[in-house]
Amino acid sequence: MTGLTDVPGLLVGHASDAVGLTGCTAVLCPGGAVAGVEIRGWASGVAGLDLLDPRHLGEHLHAVVLAGGSAFGLEAVFGVMAHLEAQGIGFPTPAGAVPLVAGAILYDLALGDPRARPDHAMGRRAAAAATAGPVEEGSVGAGTGATVGKLFGLGRAMKGGLGTASRRAGAATVGALVAVNALGDVRDPATGALLAGTRDAPDGRRLVDAAQALREGAPPPSFRGTHTTIGLVATDARLGKIEATRLAGLAHLGLARTLSPPHTTVDGDALFCLSTGSATTVPFDLLALVAADCVAEAVVRAVRTATALGGVPAWRDLEPRS
User: Is the N-terminal amide bond of 261 cis, ω within 30° of 0?
Assistant: First the structure.
């Protein structure tokens, strides 16, 4: 299986600014998807929370947008809405369809040009590029300006990126898409070894264990920018809004396995959940296990497929060993 678009009913498209070092990723569900979200970081930026409330009239989302640009990047949500409106996709009203779109942002302003942010036009481009084919990974879309390992600042960081994964869960398919931009490091969940993160010096090749450094008295993290991991899990198993919200929460276990440390006060870690299914039912505990596995795999793929940008090296350049 190749990634998020293995889940029927989903399309994924990117728009990237290779000069400003930012971008956005649009996940479209033209037929609608039941959705939920779980936010565990303290520095989040999320649009459309009201749409995910079980009490909201709208039963389905039509897209989720992941973007760089900090809060400025939320403008890309409206570009995706405009694209869907032009296609006649959305919540039916007497005056026409109103697309229901949620989104989350990460902070990448410090890597490239801080005036370059995902906007309405970039959101439209990402949505127009969305297909059901294989999802491009690495330093693209919302992962363009992503970095990891910033306990001691961006000068000792490494590139993050965008990764995807999918697996079967009984009769259902589960997928994940994650833009990895953490304060902390990334570990291989299979071995516990550090893959990418805080280096020992601006030109260093050896990784410093950020979590252990904090335990040993390193200055606590401050908001020096370039933090937050965002993404989503999806399945064609049938879920209600409450179940989708619960699955999003349990999918965060995949972040806990791979990000070290996860969910800090300066990260805005958030995961959405989309259910495109109308008939397939799968034991919820199985879905939760597989969703967390997919998130963990997507995080690892994000750093392994990233490329060096803005003077920040990538895993493929250093292949460091802890």
Answer: yes
